[in-house]
Amino acid sequence: MSISAIDPKTALIVVDLQKGVVAHPCVHPVSVFIQNAAELVAAFHELRLPVVFVTVVGTAPGRTEQALSKGPRLADWAELVPELTPHPGDHHVTKRTWDAFTGTGLETTLKDQGVTQVVIAGIATSIGVESTARVAYALGFNVTLAVDAMSDRNAAAHDNSVSYIFPRLGETGTNREILSILTKRSA
Q1: How far apart are CA 64 and CA 73, in angstroms?
Q2: How crowded is residue 180: how many other Cβ atoms within 10 Å of its Cβ?
Q3: Residue ranges of the domains in the chain?
Q4: Has UniProt tagged this entry with the keyword Hydrolase (predicted)?
Q5: In this structure, which of 12, 52, 70, 168 has its CB flanked by the most CB atoms within 10 Å?
Q6: For the residues of 148-160, what is the DSSP string, one character each?
Q7: Which pLDDT band, with edges at 50, 70 and 90, does 133 fall under?
Q8: Alpha-carbon distance 154 to 25, whole Å?
């Protein structure tokens, strides 16, 4: 894990940290990775850097071999977990695919703000987070992945993303490493 820099105009993208998604079993303690994500949100707010909250409300229309749950959902299923404390200026993305960019206008929003780098946190590491990182990288953003501010339902899938996929898409580190660089930069 090694983070070389945080660009002056970096956005934080928080993927699917919503009540209905975090209610499923995860590899890591939910309270820990949510707290790490919340600390990143607070730091980005304090530094007046863009924060993007992504929530999933459906799935892409294509066929898959693995059935996805389509049963009834609680009314608050898509609400962000309360620890994240959104601010009025934050950008909210509602998605129906694995990544935060497809069909959401997020690329335009970030580029219009001059964003050159994204820090990504959320759930699931091997699905929403990895897919968002892949697209961000393909779109030309520098990508940083906060590996202790994410989790997955499957330990092997999480480990594969963190160990083999993420280093090809960007830089990885802990929220403390990211916060340290942000703090030094703002001093």
Answers
A1: 21
A2: 14
A3: 10-59+82-186
A4: yes
A5: 12
A6: EEEE-S-HHHHHH
A7: very high
A8: 9
Q: So what's the architecture of 10-59+82-186 in CATH?
A: 3-Layer(aba) Sandwich (3.40)
Q: What distance in Å separates the CA atoms of residue 29 and residue 42, rounded to the nearest whole number?
A: 20
Burial readout 42-70 (b: 16 or more C-beta within 10 A, e: otherwise): bbbbeeebbbbbbbbeeeeeeeeeeeeee
CA distance 170 to 174: 14
Q: What are φ and ψ of residue 71, in 5° steps?
A: -70, 180
* pLDDT for residue 60 is more than 90: no
Query: Taking a C-beta distance cutoff of 8 angstroms, is the pair 43, 176 a contact?
Result: no
**Residues 61-108: tens digit of each pLDDT:** 666 566 655 555 667 878 889 999 999 999 999 998 889 999 999 999
Query: Taking a C-beta distance cutoff of 8 angstroms, is the pair 6, 144 a contact?
Result: yes
CB 126 within 8 A of CB 169: no
Amino acid at 136: A
Q: pLDDT of 2-41, one tens digit each?
A: 899 999 999 999 999 988 888 888 898 889 999 999 999 9
The letter for the amino acid at 49 is L
